[in-house]
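Researcher: Next entry in the queue.
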Amino acid sequence: MHRLFLALLVAVWFPACQSMEKEKVVITVHSQGNDMDSPKTIFRRNVNGRNMIFKIIPEFSTQGVSAIHPFPADDGTYGVTLKLDFKGTQALDIVTRMRQGEMLMTMVNGTVVDHVIIDRPVSNGMFTVWRGLPEELVTLLEEKHPSINELKSSSTFLEMTPSTRKEKKESKRNALRDSKEKASEEKRRARGDFDPEVPEGDIVPLSELLKSTR
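Model: Structure for this entry, 214 residues:
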């Protein structure tokens, strides 16, 4: 059933999500629909004993993620905070302003894992899935996305969250490089290897220093 829904999601959202077919972890966040919507654009799921209607096309998905922060959930699974790119941030901002009091439901690879009630606008591009991810899927996410703490701007002059696929890949490479450099520096310092301190003041040539001592 989950695979059928995921296939339906890709089919409806094609071609905008062609690359999702290659994703090993597909996170989609869906807003509520209603009986007035076309049957082809909605689906039903049982949430806390209630038969709820949701829109098939998600508000945002894994494609809009620039960085992540996984954490252990209370139920033994994992949750993850998502830092969205520009497009994802805009989508989250709009849906949380327009649909307050309604539900956002999160699915991972076609399986419902979490839901939240919209109680305020969210404009910072941060969305948290509070539970439902197994450790192996978190590992796959970490292989592709940098940590939120490691995320750097895609611009030298402006604070810009990486948004294109190229920028996101470069952000992950930079995070891995910085992590390796930090680990190497910590090992070097643990061995007692330190860079010599640079003396304060102007550097005086040795020949001049010898003249002054005569």
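Model: The chain has one domain: 2-188.
Researcher: Noted, moving on.
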